[in-house]
TrEMBL record:
Keywords: Membrane, Transmembrane, Transmembrane helix. The keyword Acetylation does not apply. It holds the Pfam family GntP_permease. The chain crosses the membrane at residues 28-45, 57-76, 96-121, 133-153, 173-192, 239-258, 273-294, 306-327, 427-444. The keyword Transmembrane helix applies. This is Gluconate permease.
Amino acid sequence: MHPVLIFLFALIAILLFTAKFRLHPFLSLVLVSLLTGILAGEPIRTIQAVTEGLGSVFSRFAIIITSGSIIGLLLQKTGGMSLIASDITRFFKNPLLALSFLGFLFSVPTMCYILAYVIFIPIAKELSSRLNYPPISTATALALGAVASFNLVYPSPVIISAAEELSANRDMLILLGFLTTVPTSFSGYLYARSLGKAEVSGMNEGGVIREKTIVKEKKDLSQENGALQRTENRKPGRFEAYAPIFIPLFLILFEAVLNNPNTLFTFLGNPNVALLIGVLLSIFSGRVLGLPMIRVQVEKAIKRSGVVLLDLCGGGALGATLAMTGAGEALGKFFLQFNLPHILVPFLVAAALQTVQGSRVVTMLVAPSLLLPLVPELGLPPEILILSMASGTFMISHVNDPFFWIFGELAELTPSEVFRSNTLGNALMGVVSFLIVSGIYFFFY
């Protein structure tokens, strides 16, 4: 079967398994990987590709994602997140801009934009109630800020994966990612602000019903937080709150700037090591909880990260299998025959993957594998190619994207409101990001 037809089969199969049959993403991705390899006439090589793809992703992300989950949960439980959030909202004055920056700031160190959103949505709702902002506006500002940095800023999992696959210059990727993500995030803030000008109320009947029936564990989580706050009068100081986040980021950035392979900072600045240092610092700041509670929270964070890792491993399996079939090269040549600008090809490939299967990290695991054979023909610098693909991951968030439902349920919005806020807001940021990356390429390369 032609590689492009195999690719289309994979997309349709993923859509059916995840959206129609509601099969778990990990199982969906692994099953589609196996079926894709069988269609390509390579069943034996497919097994090897699937297992190697799974193992490769786990080895790259197990420490990073688990560490980020532990840091985020411990800082949430100790009140460190609340302290930082209060500082930022005081500093910015503008509550929507503050929420956008909160999402932007915490999405990368926690290694999960969903986690950043879940942690700070209570603050968004409180500001909405206190300052009479529409809930759709505050929730959108927070969510779009979180997604923007997660999609574009090193050392986010989506960027690390692509950088290793395509051998990108890390220093340049950090610089260009920052230059791209700041205006992209600001465009998300402006869109969230525009939503506030319309007479929209998130507290509608459907939202209230959903809030009552979402999950009982939300209520349990609130009770747990309340219990922690009642039983512990002490909270971490500012250094203890900020250190688990900013010291790892400093180590990673300093090592990138230093760029000397024979120094201690090469070891300390490795994202795996830097984030493990963040874990130790978060445990130290979490001593106010007591050792038994720290153990409980660490175990909870590890379980949470395990689910995420399984999904990513499934994406690694699919990426390795599609690369084996030659689908990426065939797909790229299919786009190139229309004389499209070469920089548009990685954007379209990533957008197609994202729209069909819904996970941004899976998209950025699969897309580089698909496009790797086409890198010489495209003639794009690896950093530009990565950021073009990353721009495509903003497109299109809909019902097969888990964040689509998490965003709406926690903000108490109807599906139509989620389409208008989350889906359109992300699409806007994707276009803005792509235009910025294109401008950087055409003017500076």
